Amino acid sequence: MSVRWIIRTFSELCLTVGSLIVLFVVYVLFWTGVRADSAMDGELGKLAERWATGPVAAASPAPGGPSQDGSTSPGAGDAQDDGPPPQPAYRDGEPFAVMYIPRFGGDWAKPVLEGTATGTLQKGLGHYDGTARLGATGNFAVAGHRRTYGDPFKDFPRLRPGDAVVISDGTTWFTYRIDKRPYRTSPGDIGVIDPVPRASGYDGPGRYLTLTTCEPEWGHSHRLIAWAHLDATEPVAGGRPSALRS
């Protein structure tokens, strides 16, 4: 066996491995994004068709009196519940709402599905099973990928206090307001999605939103958390909410 043959064989192996790595990177950075964007568009289409062809169950109304624009503005820590009739349970893996975050761009809109299974998060954002319903007293907690599968929370660190997170269930616009910059913690810190989230600064029951994603940007050793309180509700029939018109 000659030295030349060994060198040539090793070089060919290096080229093969290098090609495989390049293909894998292309798959992770590009193809998963293409598939996820198509999947999310499909989920958004499902919701649009559902909302256009049938009645949507009314969501839990927020407490507090109407504001000048007809919206409702509850306090962040208001624990009073109006006792709405029971609503159908969210169906695992199925979309039930659309989230808009103006900070991420005027065309940023992602479906919210029930559950946080791997397959579910490849089609949009996932609502943590067992956390509050949208707009209800408690903590409505949602997870999303930072990178890959459409990069829905790529710009997560840009969130700032006062930023709007608007979510529609087809009948009501729910506008939440971010209360603090994203918080970094470990994956095992499940207290961040408690009804009164640990380390959030909230001191009692309220109508809260928790967003979670991976940290660092291309890893998953930690989590980034953003908390918000329900600031206003507006009927979908009245057009786009004020938070999306500015």
Automatic annotation (TrEMBL):
Record-linked InterPro entries: Sortase (IPR005754), Sortase_Class_E (IPR053465), Sortase_dom-sf (IPR023365), Sortase_E (IPR042003)
Keyword Cytoplasm in annotation: no
Feature: compositional bias, Low complexity: 56-78
Record has Transmembrane helix as a keyword: yes
Membrane-spanning segments: 12-31
Segments for region (Disordered): 56-92
Keywords: Hydrolase, Membrane, Transmembrane, Transmembrane helix
Annotated protein name in UniProt: Class E sortase
